[in-house]
Amino acid sequence: MLDIISTYENYLSKVKKASGNTVSSYMRDIRQFSDWLERTEGTELLNAVQQNISVYLTHLQDQGKSGATVSRTLASLKNFYVYAVSSGFLEASPITDQIHVDRGERKPPQILTGREVELLLSQPVTTDSKGLRDKAMLEVMYATGIRVTELIELNVEDVNLGMGFVRCNGAKKSRVIPLYPAALKALASYLNDARPLMAVSASEDALFVNVSGVRMSRQGFWKILKYYQSKAGIEKDITPHTLRHSFAVHLLENGADLSALQELMGHSDISSTQMYASLVNAKVKSVYDKCHPKA
């Protein structure tokens, strides 16, 4: 894989005569995407598919990157894959016209109200294994605010029901996140009554498994979430990150400090966490403007 990256870098500087800054920014974007692919997807640049690109761009937005930065990253990757196709490394680019990034200011993330969260969490019918699993996944997602990749990568050994926490193994370090009682109850019910019936074998490590008995995929959880959104009648455009964003804002609204939230979210830079404080402050300002008699 390093061969095509080096070859492309040489192409940019020697054939395209791109400036040093342009080459540097393009190659940084490509190498960062390559590292992310190998770390989170277990695949390489030339094996990437459109879904990988979309998830990565969402990941950058979740890290607080500006619309311009995300747009530049998309352009870097698009040009790289055009080169890969023209040079015979690939038959077709994984980037299509369906992938689009707004260069303007990124819209604030959707945040669910407390009532909407309750509606969503109450949708799974816990009378069968699938319902018990879905209930546990949604509860754990909202209880911890972990990323969808981190959710599906949880193993059974990462759960401590007695102490009431899960251990999330992030890209750079592990973090221990407590679970509220309802999430613990849902997780215990799934582990005791559903997972033994669903797992394809006793050697399967994955905490959450699909109907085939193997580790749940991001796409699988996405479909589950959209299904329950529809059942709940929630009109907001919910994604797995919506639960993560809602977790963060609700904690801040109830008195959590930024440093504690940074640790729970697994942010390496507190500037990513400060985005949520801005959302809370904007909400407070809106309430003030609406309710203060002198406003």
Structural description of this entry:
With 295 residues, the chain is mostly helical. It has twelve helices and three strands, in the order H-H-H-H-H-H-H-E-E-E-H-H-H-H-H. A three-stranded antiparallel sheet has the order 1-2-3, with no helix packed on it. A hairpin with a 4-residue loop joins strand 2 (165-169) and strand 3. Helix 10 (240-253) crosses helix 12 (270-291). It is globular, with a radius of gyration of 21 Å.
Protein topology:
Blueprint: H1 2-15, H2 20-41, H3 50-62, H4 67-86, H5 114-121, H6 129-144, H7 148-152, E1 159-160, E2 165-169, E3 174-178, H8 181-198, H9 218-232, H10 240-253, H11 258-265, H12 270-291
Antiparallel strand pairs: 1-2, 2-3
Helix pairs in contact: 1-2, 2-4, 3-4, 5-9, 6-8, 6-10, 10-12, 11-12
